[in-house]
From TrEMBL:
This is GMC family oxidoreductase. It comes from Amnibacterium setariae. Keywords: FAD, Flavoprotein, Oxidoreductase. One of its GO terms (molecular function) is oxidoreductase activity, acting on CH-OH group of donors. InterPro entries: FAD/NAD-bd_sf, GMC_OxRdtase_N, GMC_OxRtase_C. Residues 81-299 form the Glucose-methanol-choline oxidoreductase N-terminal domain. Residues 386-498 form the Glucose-methanol-choline oxidoreductase C-terminal domain. Belongs to the GMC oxidoreductase family.
Amino acid sequence: MRHHAETDEVDAVVIGTGAGGAPILARLAQAGLSVVALEAGPNWEPTDHTPDEIDAASIYWTSERLSGGTDPEAFGGNNSGIGVGGSTLHWGAFCPRPDERDLRLASDQGAGVDWPITHAELIPYIEEVERFIQVSGPADYPWDPARRYPLPPVARNAPADLMAAGCDALGIRTTDSPAAIVSRDVQQPHFGVRAGAINSGATHQGDRVASKASMDVTYLPLAVAHGAEIRAGAMVHGLERDATGRITAVVYRKDGVDHRQRTRNVFLCGGGVESARLLLNLDLANSSGQVGRNYMAHPAAQVWGRFDRPTRMWRGWPSSLISEDFVRPKEKDFAGGYLIQSLGVLPVTLATSMARSGIRGERLMDLLEHYDSFAGIGVNGECLPAESNRLTLVDEVDEVGLKRARIDFSFSDNERALDAHSVTTMKAIWEAAGAKDVFVLNRTAHAEGTCRMGDDRDSAVVDPNGRSYDVDNLYICDNSVFPSSLIANPALTIMALALRTADRFLGR
């Protein structure tokens, strides 16, 4: 790997190496630019990962955050990763495409906001990402017959088969889920062989055989091969600026010592919480007053049921079946809609979610006795942006002196109506499949929207190309720039936006 001196003025510093930072780093390096990525966490090798849920906590961002509101969100393993590869180290690799209707929600349904870019502009980047990370998926996608995936689908597990049976009985269409997991051995450029899925249910604990498309086995090797430098264990806590307001250096702490890297440009890709937290701490790029506002989290209720035969849901990829039949439900009293996916989780994860939903004591223990006979269904639903849902700072500081984040989040009437509709749907599916002991887990997922992208500098933090309205050599690219939540899980869209932002920066 190439190494730059801190006194060198590099073309760009990329803060964060997840779904936003890694593709940008690769694109800029391929263009011949001198680029340095700073990652707060360590560098993990695939063989460092473990299926043990407790030991795997080292890949989660567990630095303290305060969570408030009527529907406070759980962080850590739910939506935040740390290490070279960011949250893609532990993401579930479920990667449906964003739906065109979700990008124009306000125009179509009079709620939320529209995206300042079109679906047609985004799709070529989506397809490029799918080809490069080698997404597995069905040959016939019912909601988009022209769609083609690079690899055949990953094998279904028992919860997927049971969900399919229930959906079939109700006339709900399903198919194999698009998965950022290779279904057979493949050669990944500049990394090597990524082994085909070994039917492990421990996807969220990291992937020992690199079947999952985390950034450390896809875009980051590409970046390093073209001259990029990655510095692990480098926690950014400052940005130096000149008299004109342009950023001239990034300040970070590594092994207890502060360093500064001179740079001509900065790409901030820390995620929906950390990007906004850094800007608020530095009082930067916030003339609109929108940094930290419009926080969104997907309604992500789960419904679980017990079956008369073992399901062994820890085997196989956890989310191997999808339905998009409810992206726009016919009879509804809310804007937007939701995706449905099959679920299988490991026991500690299930028990934790049950406790958070109020299932405790004897009831909790009785249900867990039948863990190997349970199967789950979950949704990912639309969340409307609201200024009252926001990230602010508290007086308590972290290990580098940055004030910690407090995230207040409450469902609006729209999210509550969507949540109720989705739970009714999932209960009906399990009833049709013959499930017993059905129970609901209330939850949200992902962290989006705190540095909104838009055409109007008075209501947005960055322009449609990801460039700050206030600091002309600062770009932001992660799910913080999402104007609305979209229904699809965010990682695929983040990667596509990253390539688009890099191309706009390069003048393409």
